[in-house]
Amino acid sequence: MKKKDWILIFVVLCVAASAYLAHYFLRDTGKGEVIVEVNGKLTGTYSLNEDQEITINQGSNLLEIKNGKANMIEADCPDQLCVHQRAVSASNENIICLPNKVVVEIRSKGESQIDAVTN
Ligand SMILES: [Zn+2]
Known about the structure:
It contains three helices and seven strands, in the order αβββββαββα. The chain is 34% helix and 36% strand. It folds into two domains: 1-30; 31-118, mini-chromosome maintenance (MCM) complex, domain 2, CATH 2.60.320. The chain has helices at residues 2-28, 81-84, 109-118, and strands at 32-38, 41-47, 52-56, 61-66, 69-75, 94-97, 102-108. It is elongated, with a radius of gyration of 19 Å. The structure holds zinc ion. Zinc ion binds next to helix 2.
């Protein structure tokens, strides 16, 4: 009985580990898109695969996409909270600049395709 329990635990752990690894690698293949919203309006979608700098809201915020991650590198907001936030790369992670009403969010391409259909 006990041996069977251990085998079961081992199998469950293996499944969990492979699911985690699959998720990790899928995330790292850079399938994500960066969604930029200003004042609740979508202003642009950018690929996480392409390294680039994005000027948001006529220059109030500057977003950098590098190595599959999006990072707010400059902002003219007084709190600078968005600049101090760590870079985001996983689906549904976001950077929010409250004073400038800027939202930067990561979405997987699969999800945005569903959005395109429903819109
Ligand atoms: Zn800010």
